[in-house]
Amino acid sequence: RKEVEQDPGPFNVPEGATVAFNCTYSNSASQSFFWYRQDCRKEPKLLMSVYSSGNEDGRFTAQLNRASQYISLLIRDSKLSDSATYLCVVNLDGTASKLTFGTGTRLQVTL
Amino acid sequence: ETGVTQTPRHLVMGMTNKKSLKCEQHLGHNAMYWYKQSAKKPLELMFVYSLEERVENNSVPSRFSPECPNSSHLFLHLHTLQPEDSALYLCASSQGKLLAGGYEQFFGPGTRLTVL
After folding, report:
1. Interchain pair A99, B101: CB under 8 A
2. What is the C-alpha to C-alpha distance for residues A48 and A37, in angstroms, rounded to an integer?
3. What letter would DSSP give residue A93?
4. What is the pLDDT of residues B37-54, one digit of tens each?
5. Which of A88, B33, B35, B42 could lock B92 by a disulfide, CB 3.0 to 4.6 Å apart?
6. A39-69 pLDDT, tens per residue?
7. Which residues of B touch A8 (CB under 8 A)?
8. Which distant-in-sequence residues (6+ apart) come within 8 Å of B11 by Cβ?
9. What does each C-alpha distance from B100 to A60, A93, A109, B31, B92 come to in angstroms?
10. Position B99 pLDDT exceeds 60
């Protein structure tokens, strides 16, 4: 089992659609979880942290399911500008500084 | 000045060359990182420096040699690389060591390296 696993996609959705990505992680003791966004040929940027109680930022909702060891990202009312690769990131073993990245899920929003 | 800068942005080198990648952060952070991003693979953490001390070396071959002269600068010295080392090398910085709550890592734009 991969340490952090994501469906690579691509997910092709029309503008206005709702799309959800899941990500599974291998270590039940993992403490910190994040979604990063990476545009084509650009660096990753933090989209949002994922808290135990779930959190929402505008059209984006992140959830954590510790029992099943996955996190999710829901994007409502997709915009063309949401087209990017979404990276699931986990601090797997609680070691200071070490983040483990998934391969990313590519989203393409179309007219 | 943008938060994390990297130079050069593109580098082509032969297997016998020696070159260095440079990273500079203007955010007052005290932890810096080198990552490697290859096509269709996840980002791989290579090195972590915290307060100028190397705290992580993820079994990186010795042909990659990091240097952190101060908390704002990070170098990656390259020598006798292989074609499979061609990738995007990303530098990142964060406020401190990652704790349970997590500290955001800010990435530079990367150096796209091609080894011939």
Report:
1. no
2. 9
3. S
4. 998 889 999 998 887 777
5. B33
6. 998 999 999 999 888 899 999 999 999 999 9
7. 40
8. B19, B21, B111, B112, B113, B114
9. 23, 10, 34, 16, 19
10. no
A42 with B90: Cβ contact below 8 A: no
B96 touches B7 (CB < 8 A): no
Tokens of A57: 């930022």
Q: Cβ–Cβ of A45/B97 closer than 8 Å?
A: no
Contact by Cβ (8 Å): B86, B116 = no
B89, B105, B106: which to substitute to probe chain A, counting the most A Cβ within 10 Å? B105
Distance CA B60, CA B54 (A): 13
pLDDT at B50: 82
Residues of chain A contacting B31 with CB distance shorter than 8 Å? 97
* Cis before B8 (ω within 30): yes
Residue A96 — φ and ψ, nearest 5°? -55, 130
Choose among A8, A32, A44: nearest Cβ to B100. A32
Position B100 scores a pLDDT of 44
CB contact under 8 A, B42 and A101: yes
CB contact under 8 A, A96 and B55: yes
